[in-house]
Design brief:
The complex is a heterotrimer of chains A (496), B (518) and C (503). With 496 residues, chain A is mostly helical. Chain A is 76% helix and 3% strand. Chain A has 23 helices and two strands. Chain A has a two-stranded antiparallel sheet. In chain A, a hairpin with a 4-residue loop joins β1 and β2. In chain A, α11 packs antiparallel against α15. Chain B has a domain of 230 residues. Chain B is globular, with a radius of gyration of 22 Å. Chain B starts with 5 loop residues before the first helix and ends with a helix. Chain C is an all-alpha fold and 503 residues long. Chain C is built from 20 helices and two strands. In chain C, β1 and β2 form a beta hairpin. In chain C, strands 1-2 form a two-stranded antiparallel ribbon. Classes of the chains: A mainly alpha (496), B mainly alpha (518), C mainly alpha (503). Chains A and C meet through β1, α5, α6 and α7 of A and α17, α18 and α20 of C.
Chain lengths: 496, 518, 503
């Protein structure tokens, strides 16, 4: 059933492309319907099916595809995949709602958007590594066009940089996958088969960092993260929401599924160095966000910082760390979406500026009270206030990280503090400027539209629900960590 | 298990009501009986009922409410009562309605403001009854948001930077606390406070740390020292200990006085409560030099605060520094507990005194500070901008009741025997003298200095010639008197019959002392 | 010594080639009989249709009606592998004739000669595929080359084009010389000209340096033909100056034949002389040299393409790069590897032909990238733009298009060599890295097409493609897409056919 998330999205994409340009609203509704249906599929599984006790993978489709290479069309899901699919669903609904008012080349926009979403769904439910890679690459090209055609600041440069970095990362990952396939002499690219082979240490020593780096370049590991702020700022709002919210998680998810699962020995060798990079990313991203003048750049760099938490959790390879990483993937996906939505859609389209100084001239709090409240709540969530999903996620990550490396947890704590600082700075500058800097007469701004309100409420509800009752997600994620796929990784660490 | 979740009611009712008022403020034309005030009084009555029932000898476990929340980390939604919680609940029940009433009486009738205060009432109940760190921290952090807005939106002009500073200091403290306690909890394998105290009592704590937190092969003492520094430091920010008190005087001065009442009487107690729950079990294992160092900083700090208070011009700032001073006594008492008793009876008694004094002082300082700021708010409302430490003088003639009650509060703060302030301070000093004499010696002059600046203030403000100004001070109205009656009465009664409170506390305290293996 | 095959058997073996030659002669003959065929503006329809018919018949005979076997001391072989590859070759030929038919405004006269020459070139290529003997290889090579030289100079209207054609001719001649010299050395050492006999004679002997020298020289000569670096200098110029169908011919068919012959030459003729990739053992075998050519092609091709501002030249340099990728498939002798090269080149050929057709459809002679015929294609013709995207992405190697799958296939084949694993991994990594570079310039083309507004002031840019152009482009695109998603049958067939062909 879940495989329809992929098919439906691609069908919607084709539908949008061929629909006539004279009826743009048709595309919007096609896209929205597809997104809602796919989210409901994910919700249905999550709410009405019991998570399997042993965290086993449920295979949905299995077809031989290219026998000479041993490639199968293998779709399935386990708890972690399900959480990510749900995230994609929610984020895509919100992204479509926030792109409702696009005027130019509407059907192409939604066509590319749905293609991107389809590719992302595909990555999350593939269990054949070749297929995973195919979907990973499919997701790259729509990004280019979405940014280069509908973007804003530096769109050409931002788009090319983003795409090239993504491609290089995926190339590195492909090297790892190919190497594993060839060395193991496996019959197919299916993940479960490739795990069976005991790769020797020398091989894992180079295969792990190559593959891991390949995937986490897309996740924004410092210092390979520079594409992210440029690209996200250049992208139009709906795309930024998806890029920062979901596509960066592709990298982290890939890192969990491929190198951490296949090469646990390599993981334990390289853990500290890579975790240091992750922790540095948390702090560096936050520090740079602190000095930005463009609002969107603040959020772009904060995304780098938050993704550092994900990678820190992944590399902690304890149960708390891994579940924290998955939670943080979900949580940050929602929160980043919210933040980009407020800045890009609610503010920028009305005031046509993102400069923090300039925004204080607009008296935004009185003009756009809904936006103010939403941004306040989003900011609090981003800071990691209890009650929102970010807190639970960061708690898990830090708890998991303490068991593995102490100083890095302290760095992570520092990152949280800096997060408070830059969020407050941006929030105060835009919505609560010092009274003397607001001119007496400000031009009035158009009010927040209904699709924007719906999108914002959806995202806020998601983060609150998970923050107050994280069991919704954790009940699915934790059994996966006991499954035979990830068990060697966790065990290896606890004996080291 | 109690069939009806009273504690959850105490926590969530004001929280949600406050939130509701924030979204939809309901105006009221009555002086006192606004919806927020009514909610607050209602909650307080329920709290008092719970306290009385508890005092009536019901089983502690009867009050416990537990529900599975995040099984992967072993965190439950767990609220419960013990002696200290009950005393703190009483304090909050007494003071919150007073604060809300003071708001309305001094003209701050914004319902949103009241909504924020209601939210704080709820989080207070949550903090004082939470049984594990996660839930405790949850409410602790949430309290920051209404506090921040209270200072920023309704404070004196120029409050933006002050409120921001408050927020940032508090957040940094919270995060240090979080990071430190997470390490501790992951070593112990549980977030429950009970398991922390048990681990400390059975001496399993150092072993657990050594096994699970293998950081670069540090000796266990160092690990404990790091954790102590993080947790204690994080909480010290909230308590307002020197040198982490930078946010305090400005915040207290800029916030509206009823809000300051809540800040000093209740929010700082959150920090102290946290110290008792979290730092106390660590004390036996913390390296002695670190304890000594911290003690020196504490004691010098409280002396410094007292001396700074003497140099203030603004009344509220003086009271702020005085708060820092008084809370310093509490921290001093806590740290003194680290002195190994080795089973010597006299030292054990001294520890009981110290801990009892700490708890008593938490309660009485709450009452006294509340009274002081209450009266200050009334004075400011009547003569805005004219009240300072040096002036206006001669108010006693115009408002004898006001002057009288203020005098009572001041004397209680100084520690006059017969009022509750004396009890707490006496017990603390008695205990600390026996445990760490030099600390008590250094802290002693602060008592004297406190007396000096308070009496000086009384002299200049209420007695003597009228300095300037034409407007006069009307005396207390009946409503205003009534509002502060419970607090004042307790100040008086507890001075003579402290056992009302001590009886509630004693079982818990004795258990705690015995739990400290030395 | 003649084998005991009779002349009929012989004819049956080269039946497809014969059919093509006969068709070519028929076209020539028909045109001579019609007086005003030489008048400019005459439609080439008759000639084209005849050519297509001939090719189709040849394919049919090739696949279904032909016997297998060899002739004249293994001079010429026909086995399932050659059948498949020839069929692919001729299919490409059909597409090219169609291309010429669709873009007939380019060439205004001498259609019959054009078709005949193309058919002759295809014959040569087909013979090349079936050759198993050094002299046979050379003869077929020359047939192809001479036809191509003339075709390259077909457009006489501008002098620079004639200059480039001359360049092609001279370099081609030089390469032929290299090939011949290499062959003579090989003959001298091994005493035979037939590939299986050569390999037999060298069995068990250590590698003769002279033999290796001969092989390398022959490789140099072949390298010119397939546009491998560092023998690629003619490519950009020739691609820019030739007529579109000829560009397509050089880009697709000629490469297919060239690679096939190289593969057979190396692996059937000198398998023991392969050598190892590690340790820079340049004198121990020819494999390190192949790896070096591959590396140079990938790097030089992609880096040079970055700086191009004309589309044809860009295609030329990217062709060099694609040769580099394809050379990776020569890492091992197995049927997988050879099949992967064949699959790669066939799919590449189809994509390039589609792209060239699209270029022709959008702009006559102008082939600038910026403000060129492709600018703003999205608004001028959305369908063409979509096809452009799919074709370019296939060339760049993005899934789910066939270009990606073909590259992936090559990588797997390259890594499956026993031993030398790290060396080939390094080359694969380089291939992927240079693919990233190629993505940059391919996306540059797409950026022009999709992200820019159309430039209104250039009247020669057409917005509408004729029906035949459109059909051709769509066919190529669809093949690209479908092969990308469902390549199984083609790959399995190719692998099976190579497996069944030991010689």
């Amino acid at each position: 059933m879940l495989s329809w998330t992929v098919y439906l999205s691609f069908l919607a994409s084709i539908g949008c492309f061929i629909s006539p340009a004279s009826r743009p609203e048709r595309c919007r509704w096609i896209a929205l319907t597809s997104a809602i249906l796919t989210t409901m599929m994910a919700l249905r599984v999550m709410l009405f099916q019991n998570p399997p006790e042993d965290g086993a993978i449920e295979i949905i489709t299995h077809q031989a595809w290219i026998p000479t290479l041993g490639i199968h069309f293998l779709l399935g899901f386990d708890g972690i995949s399900l959480v990510m699919v749900l995230l994609t669903g929610i984020a895509s609904i919100a992204a479509i709602l926030f792109s409702w008012d696009i005027e130019t080349r509407v059907n192409e926009f939604f066509g590319f958007l749905m293609a991107l979403i389809g590719g992302v769904y595909g990555v999350f439910i593939s269990f054949d590594l070749f297929l995973l890679f195919v979907f990973y690459e499919i997701a790259i090209i729509p990004k280019y066009f979405l940014i280069a055609i509908w973007g804003s600041t530096n769109k050409s440069y931002g788009a090319m940089k983003l795409v090239l970095y993504s491609f290089v990362g995926s190339a590195l990952a492909l090297v790892g996958i190919l190497a594993a396939f060839v060395v193991s002499g496996a019959e197919s690219f299916a993940l479960q088969e490739l795990i069976q082979f005991p790769y020797e240490e020398g091989f894992q020593r180079w295969a792990f960092p190559v593959t891991f780096l390949g995937f986490v370049i897309l996740a924004g590991l410092w210092p390979f993260h520079t594409w992210a702020p440029t690209g996200h700022v250049a992208a139009p709002t709906g795309t930024s929401m998806l890029l920062a919210g979901v596509v960066m998680k592709l990298g982290a998810y890939g890192a969990l599924r491929v190198p951490l699962t296949l090469f646990p020995m390599g993981a334990s060798i390289w853990r500290e160095e890579l975790a240091l990079l992750a922790a540095l990313g948390i702090v560096a991203g936050a520090l740079v966000a602190l000095v930005q003048q463009d609002f969107k750049f603040v959020i772009g760099y904060s995304s780098v910082s938050h993704m550092g938490f994900v990678m820190l959790g992944l590399l902690a390879t304890t149960e708390a760390g891994l579940s924290g990483a998955v939670l943080q993937m979900f949580s940050h996906g929602i929160i980043a979406g919210l933040l980009f939505a407020v800045v890009g859609r609610m503010i920028y389209t009305r005031t046509h500026t993102r400069d923090l100084q300039a925004l204080s001239q607009f008296d935004l709090r009185r003009q756009l009270p809904f936006a103010g409240t939403v941004f306040l709540l989003a900011g609090l969530a981003s800071m990691g206030l209890p009650g929102f999903s970010g807190f639970v996620a960061e708690l898990h990550v830090i708890a998991g990280a303490w068991q593995s490396y102490a100083w890095l947890s302290l760095l992570a704590g520092l990152g949280v503090v800096l997060g408070v600082a830059y969020t407050m700075r941006a929030l105060l500058a835009s919505f609560w400027p010092a009274p003397h800097s607001v001119p007496a007469h400000v031009q009035s701004l158009p009010p927040i539209t209904l699709p924007e309100k719906c999108g914002a409420i959806l995202l806020l509800a998601a983060t609150l629900l998970v923050g107050l009752y994280p069991r919704l997600l954790l009940d699915w994620v934790i059994p996966c960590l006991h499954a035979p796929m990830l068990q060697p990784l966790i065990e290896r660490v606890s004996t080291v | 298990m109690n069939p009806f979740p009273w504690l959850s009611l105490l926590t969530w009712l004001p929280l949600l009501a406050g939130l509701g008022l924030l979204v939809r403020p309901i105006r009221s034309n009555r002086v006192l009986a606004a919806p927020s005030f009514i909610f607050s009084v209602f909650t307080s009555l329920i709290s008092l009922m719970v306290v009385l029932k508890y005092a009536g000898g019901s089983e502690t476990s009867q009050w416990e409410e537990r529900m599975e929340w995040i099984p992967s980390l072993g965190i439950d939604y767990a609220l419960g009562l013990d002696g200290l919680s009950v005393v703190m609940l009483t304090l909050s029940a007494l003071i919150m309605p007073m604060a809300l009433g003071a708001c309305r009486l001094s003209g701050l009738t914004h319902e949103r403001l009241a909504g924020c205060l209601l939210m704080i009432q709820g989080t207070l109940a949550g903090v004082f009854t939470a049984q594990n760190f996660f839930l405790w921290f949850f409410f602790y952090e949430i309290a920051l948001i209404p506090a921040y807005f209270l200072i920023k939106l309704w404070g004196k002009p120029g409050s933006e930077s002050v409120s921001l500073r408050f927020f940032i200091y508090s957040m940094i403290g919270s995060i240090a606390l979080l990071v430190g306690y997470l390490a501790l909890a992951s070593a112990l394998g549980s977030y429950e406070f009970k398991s922390l105290s048990e681990a400390s009592a059975t001496q399993w704590l150092p072993e657990a740390l050594g096994k699970n937190l293998a950081w670069f092969n540090l000796p266990i003492k160092w690990i404990v020292a790091i954790l102590f520094a993080l947790i204690f430091g994080g909480l010290a920010v909230k308590v307002g200990m020197v040198p982490l008190h930078g946010w305090l005087p400005d915040t207290y001065e800029h916030a509206p006085s009823p809000v300051t009442m809540v800040l000093t009487a209740l929010l700082s107690k959150m920090g102290l409560y946290g110290m008792v729950r979290m730092v106390m079990p660590l004390l036996p294992y913390t390296p002695w030099p670190l304890i000594q160092l911290t003690m020196i900083v504490t004691v010098v700090g409280l002396l410094y605060a007292a001396m700074s208070a003497m140099g203030q011009v603004s009344l509220k700032r003086m009271l702020a520094y005085s708060s820092v001073n008084h809370l310093g006594y509490c921290v001093m008492a806590l740290l003194a507990l680290a002195r190994p008793a080795m089973g010597e009876a006299s030292l054990l008694t001294a520890k009981e005194f110290a801990l009892g004094g700490l708890a008593m002082q938490m309660f009485s300082h709450g009452l006294i500070a509340a009274a002081l700021f209450y009266l200050t708010s009334l004075m400011e409302h009547r003569m805005p901008g004219k009240i300072s430490v040096d002036g206006p003088g001669g108010l006693r003639a115009e408002a004898p009741h006001l002057a009288g009650w203020m005098g009572l509060a001041v004397f209680a703060s100084i520690g006059l025997p017969g009022l509750c302030g004396f009890i707490g301070e006496f017990m603390i000093f008695r205990g600390v003298f026996a445990l760490i004499p030099w600390a008590a010696c250094i802290a002693l002059p602060a008592l004297l200095i406190t007396a000096i600046f308070y009496l000086r203030m009384l002299q200049y403000v209420f007695h003597g010639q009228r300095k300037h100004g034409a407007c006069s001070l009307t005396d207390l109205s009946r409503r205003e008197c009534l509002l502060m009656m419970p607090v004042m009465a307790l100040i008086l009664i507890l001075g003579w019959f402290p056992h009302y409170i001590m009886d509630l506390l004693n079982p818990t305290l004795i258990e705690a002392i015995e739990g400290m293996i030395f | 010594m003649l084998s005991d095959a009779t002349h009929t058997d012989l004819f049956r073996l080269i039946a497809p080639e014969c059919i093509i030659v006969v068709t070519a002669l028929a076209i020539l003959g028909l045109s001579m009989g019609r007086r005003n065929d030489h008048a400019p503006g005459k439609s080439p329809l008759t000639s084209s249709l005849m050519a297509i018919a001939g090719l189709a018949l040849a394919i049919w005979v090739n696949l279904f009606n032909q016997s297998q076997g060899h002739a004249l001391d293994w001079t010429f072989v026909v086995n399932p592998a050659t059948q498949m590859v020839k069929a692919g070759l001729m299919l490409t030929g059909i597409l090219l004739v169609w291309l010429h038919l669709a873009c007939s405004q380019e060439v205004r006269e001498h259609h019959a000669e054009f078709h005949a020459l193309m058919l002759f070139a295809l014959t040569g290529m087909a013979l090349l595929i079936g050759s198993n003997h050094l002299l046979m290889i050379f003869v077929a090579l020359e047939i192809t080359a001479l036809s191509l030289y003339v075709l390259a100079a077909f457009d006489k209207r501008e002098s620079w084009k004639a200059r480039n054609a001359l360049k092609y001719f001279l370099i081609g001649g030089l390469s032929a010389a290299f090939v011949l010299y290499g062959f003579s050395l090989i003959y001298g050492v091994s005493g035979s000209m037939s590939l299986p006999l050569i390999s037999q004679s060298q069995q068990g002997l250590p590698i003769d340096p002279l033999l290796l020298l001969g092989v390398i020289m022959a490789l140099v000569g072949f390298g010119f033909k397939i546009a491998a670096a560092p023998f690629h200098w003619w490519v950009a110029d020739v691609y820019a100056s030739t007529l579109t169908p000829v560009t397509g011919l050089i880009a697709s068919a000629s490469k297919i034949a060239g690679f096939y012959v190289i593969g057979r030459f190396l692996w059937y003729g000198f398998p023991q002389a392969a050598g190892k990739l590690s340790g820079f053992s340049w004198s121990q075998g020819w494999l390190p040299w192949i790896a070096a050519f591959s590396l140079l092609s990938m790097v030089i091709g992609n880096l040079a393409a970055l700086r191009q501002q004309r589309i044809r030249r860009l295609i030329g340099f990217s062709a060099v790069a694609h040769t580099g990728y394809a050379l990776l498939g020569l890492a091992s002798p197995g049927p997988q590897a050879m099949a992967s090269i064949a699959f790669y080149l066939l799919s590449y050929g189809v994509s390039v032909i589609g792209f060239l057709a699209l270029l022709r459809a959008t702009g006559q002679q102008d082939d600038r990238i910026e403000k060129g015929p492709l600018t703003g294609l999205w608004s001028r013709s959305p369908w063409l733009a979509a096809c452009l995207m799919l074709l370019i992405l296939s060339l760049a190697g993005i899934p789910p298009l066939v270009g990606f799958l073909a590259k992936f296939n090559l990588f797997v084949a390259a890594l499956n060599t026993p031993g030398n694993f790290m060396g080939w991994i390094a080359l694969v990594v380089l291939a992927l890295g240079t693919s990233a570079v190629s993505l940059y310039y391919y996306l540059g083309i797409l950026k022009e097409a999709f992200c820019r507004e159309p430039a209104n002031e250039i009247p020669s840019h057409t917005s509408e493609a004729t029906h035949s152009e459109m059909t051709l482009i769509l066919t190529c695109t669809l093949i690209t897409l479908i092969l990308g998603i469902l390549p199984g049958w083609l790959l399995s067939t190719l692998v099976a056919s190579f497996q069944q062909s030991p010689t």
